[in-house]
Amino acid sequence: MSAGSGLTAQPNPQEESALIVRFTVNGEERSVDADASMPLLWALRDLLGLRGTKYGCGIAECGVCTVHVDGSAVRSCVLPLSAVEGKHVRTIEGLGGNHALQRAWIEKQVPQCGFCQPGQIMQAAALLASNPDPDREQVRESMSGVLCRCGTYLRIEAAVQIAAAELRKAGEHSD
Ligand code: FES
Ligand code: FES
After folding, report:
1. Ligand 2: centre distance to CA 110 (Å)
2. pTM (predicted TM-score)
């Protein structure tokens, strides 16, 4: 198992498939003792109490469970816990509530039922971290994997552009 930070997963002698997995979540060092194949989403919600990230399809098809691992957007419902050993995980809670994207989401009144929105915002944050000035097609392409049953796509696109402009003006990175 790779360990970017030099941390090493330790086998739990009580259970062959269990591991103590250490990683950071929203800048805080955390460790969980769980089956190595447990999806990251389960660990975040059920073991660490971070319930902002939602469960939708469970098969990497809807994107509502999107979080960042070392800055990249990943579907946490299918990522085994063992894969985040020594890595940096960021969830919607890690944006802090006043991120430019979150302000833009409010400005454009994006959410309807709201269920998909944590995944939408985390996907958008990963996009702006890698491309601070995406055009409309690039926004559409990047966001296309996160589904919204309420059809908020046009408002999402507008909000991403607003946040991108604000971050560029402030000379800030999406992170
Ligand atoms: S719940 Fe993970 S992609 Fe749908
Ligand atoms: S706001 Fe309802 S599913 Fe997206």
Report:
1. 9
2. 0.89
